[in-house]
């Protein structure tokens, strides 16, 4: 067994799991560092939740390894889980308990410091509802209790499965701000199918499709590409020759995707050359949302 | 950790109306039987004095009381155990326990002990009812103790079986029905003649406690029954 990188708070290798013949997760590997928010993206049914359940010890994988802070989850589950906070898709709330009682229970369960209660409640906006029964709270508050439960013991790894599902836009913004804050001190994995959430919150993104990992990269780190259309198109080589251009892709005879060299913006040169050489520039724009393009391409159904 | 789970379980039980209703019905039925037996005893007390070695008040009232309690346990324990794991799995709250630094064995034992504390309270009520006879006479404490021990062991065994079914079934209702069915089946086995049937059925083993016989064989039977189903429960939870 290779020794895990000490900077990794979570390291999963080659996780596989099938349900009665249907493969749900097929060879997914994840690396998470402290101070990083990893977006876990994929269409519904891509295996996101299954993967997260395996990462948190709720589901045994058919094969593969998970280590949390260098401790193997399957060999020393109790030690590994000490540094883990998990909010599943449906928050694990006891509806007949008050918020305070529930959070105290979660705290003791994780052997957390006893003074964490007030701080966590303030952080999650729960200060006023401590005495209320969880069952009587609105969906938004219940979700916050779920998040509070996952962070109350100050874990190194926080795994949040669709934390903003069912919230109103204001609550979504609050939760995102909270996640961003958490990402500074902890390692956070965030699963979602909302692209803007990933772009706004995550440092890195991993895309799953049909149980396979199809993409892994930085959010916004990749160079923004440019889409340009010409009525009298030049050759690809001609475009690629423009200063600051890394590569050019022809999307159709008239439409090109231009990938600039990191840090340079060749838009102006393209416009200037187009008028000089009469390419009849029709439109030029930053490629719409690079992540969305990647996502759409990678997860398109092969029907 | 075991204590933490147990205490939460007790609090959840007492917060739910089910536990109170069960306890109230249990107590009401036993009180009726107690009074009916007391009435009958007072009616024939005079005649009993003419017999050599007459049955005492403990034999006449307390033993049937414990025997009735064992039958009621057969019906109510599955109702109490059915939610233990199946309900948590349905409400997804099991996730909280499974992703916390607590082992499946600790979860199972916590739940089991929590329920046993509740059933212990119910047994205490039966015992208190029997002890109230001290107001008017003498009690056979040996017989009473044997009955109490028998009832505790019976409750523990039934709870372990119910807990296992709750681990197995996806719905609490199924676990409840399955539990009552299994326990009734085991009770019915005792009607079979032959030592094998008598050895397998909890009813036959409880009957000896009920008669005041504390036999290590019977204690071993209930202990094995309990350990078997607790172990199976832990396995089942680990496998999830």
Report on the structure:
The complex is a heterodimer of chains A (303) and B (240). Chain A is α/β, with parallel strands linked by helices and 303 residues long. Chain A has helices spanning 48-55, 77-81, 99-109, 116-123, 139-151, 169-185, 195-201, 236-240, 267-276, 290-299, and strands at residues 8-19, 22-33, 36-41, 63-68, 71-72, 84-87, 157-161, 187-192, 204-209, 212-218, 226-230, 245-250, 255-260, 281-286. In chain A, the strands form three sheets. Chain A has a six-stranded mixed β-sheet with strand order 6-7-8-3-9-10, sandwiched between helices. In chain A, strands 2-1-4-5 form a four-stranded antiparallel β-sheet. Chain A starts with 7 loop residues before the first strand and ends with a helix. The mean pLDDT of chain A is 84. By secondary structure, chain B is an all-alpha fold. Chain B contains eleven helices and no strands. In chain B, helix 2 (17-48) runs antiparallel to helix 3 (57-81), helix 4 (83-90) packs antiparallel against helix 8 and helix 7 crosses helix 8. The longest helix of chain B has 32 residues, at 17-48. The model of chain B has no long low-confidence stretch (mean pLDDT 91). The A-B interface holds A 56-60, 77-79, 81-82, 84, 86, 88-97, 101, 105-106, 108-111, 149 and B 1, 4, 8, 11-12, 15-16, 91-103, 239-240.
